[in-house]
Amino acid sequence: MLTFACVGSRADTRSAGPAITLDLRVGDGTGRRVHTAALRVQLRIDPRPRRYSAAETARLADLFGEPERWGETLQPLQLATVPVLTPSFVGSVTVPVTVPLTYDLDIAAARYLHSLDDGEIPLLLLFSGTLFYAGDAGVQVGLVPWHEEAAHGLPVGVWRAAMDAFHPGGGWVRLRRDTLDRLSAYRSAHTLPTWDDALERLLKEAGDG
């Protein structure tokens, strides 16, 4: 049976979009040669073990409701599912796992991450897949059961560095096309140089600036 541990994490600034890289250690204590493990890694955010500041709690209200309800509403959030293929090894091997990220705040995991100031993001990695290993009759095939898992505390700073590599000092909000057209017309009518300026003016007109 394979064992799994996440032993490191960092921002992946060489990817085509925002991403982090996790260092996944895969172990096998039987002494046999594992030709490869074709893994499917599901990553979830488990918000329950973490403590939250007053500012973070306020930002998370529209995601989880009022704090007195968090015992019921604080549930794991799906972050990503990625494939991983290990090289041949005996004993253990450490492989990089690239996890794509999004700043689409319509997605619950992105809203959660955007709400955090510092500390760690409690990640849970769940594994399944197929194992190819050397046996007495040649190459043998086995399955990796879904109950195999590993936990990792991803520093918020690592997530922020990954996002800042593509969205420095900013974020991303998806709008309906008609809303975008109206906002663009408003920006043009008031000769505002940026989208930020248009939104700042609208907020001030609404009394929130």
Q: What this model shows, in words?
A:
With 209 residues, the protein is α+β, with helices and mostly antiparallel strands. The protein has two domains: 2-164, Immunoglobulins (Immunoglobulin-like, Sandwich); 175-209. The protein contains seven helices and nine strands, in the order E-E-E-H-H-H-E-E-E-H-E-E-E-H-H-H. It has helices at residues 54-59, 61-64, 70-73, 108-114, 156-164, 177-189, 195-205; strands at 2-11, 19-28, 33-45, 77-85, 89-90, 92-100, 120-135, 138-144, 149-155. Strands 3, 4, 5, 7, 8 and 9 form a six-stranded antiparallel beta sheet that branches. Helix 6 (177-189) packs across helix 7. The mean pLDDT is 91. InterPro entries: DUF6084.
| Secondary-structure element order, N to C | EEEHHHEEEHEEEHHH
Query: pLDDT below 50 for ≥5 consecutive residues: which ranges?
Result: none
Identify the CATH homologous superfamily of the largest domain: Immunoglobulins
CATH fold naming of the largest domain: Immunoglobulin-like
| Mean pLDDT figure | 91
The CATH architecture of the largest domain can be named as Sandwich
Strand content: 35-45%
What would the principal axes of the Cα set say about the shape?
elongated
Query: How many strands in all?
Result: 9
Counting DSSP H or I runs of 4 or more residues, the number of helices is: 7
User: How much helicity do the residues have?
Assistant: 25-40%
